[in-house]
Amino acid sequence: MPNNDKQAGPSRMTTPIAPRMMRRSRSLAVDLVDVLSSRIKDGTYALGMRMPTEADIMAAHGVSRTVVREAVSRLQQARLVVTQHGIGSFVSEALPEEQGFRIDPVDVETVVDIVNVLELRVSLETESAGLAAERRNLRQLSEMQSAISEFESCVATGADTLEADFRFHLGIAEATQNPHFFELMRHLGTTVIPRARVNSAQLAKEDKSFYLDRVNREHRVIYDAIDRQDADAARAAMRVHLTNSRERLRRFAAES
Fold it and tell me: Could you give the domains of the chain?
């Protein structure tokens, strides 16, 4: 039986790549950057390789020259591509290191920013509390209890409660026995605590001491559920604790 397959070329770089349909929800240039950067990172376009010409990219993706130039400019800014005028664009000889997930304090300035972080925390820490209830050990329980006591002392003396608050939540993350929960919370740091950015007591229209006492009472409810290894109650208590803060901030944003 005759073999009708065509012989493969010496390199996959010469194999035509089918055009990709662009999504309309974002700019065409951003979509094109996604396509080209993916091909650079997965080796389809090798290090130092000359990129397809503007005309080739236009034909392959059905976009204008303006879109192609904007996409190439973004790739240059990301240090994925270098352009030699009069010659063409080439994949960088050494790609920049991938930046991991991060939330910089400078990116958490507005009430909307804080609400966004709280939405992340609701998903992350609700499950974290449940796992902590199932897996915690005595040392980790002691650390959580110590954080609650420190919080109470800070309220009584008028000292800052941020570090104690964060210690409590970080202790829960550690008690999951899953290092990824702990590392993500440790990375976020006190940025995750809303009153590090806004006057939460004022937004809640409460006396500061009363507000902080209530926050720590919620901590105690979470702790008690973890202590008795009630995963469902721990998840519910954490969700209430975080959604209370989120809803106060949402109401404030709506009224502003």
Answer: 12-91 (1.10.10.10), 105-255 (1.20.120.530)
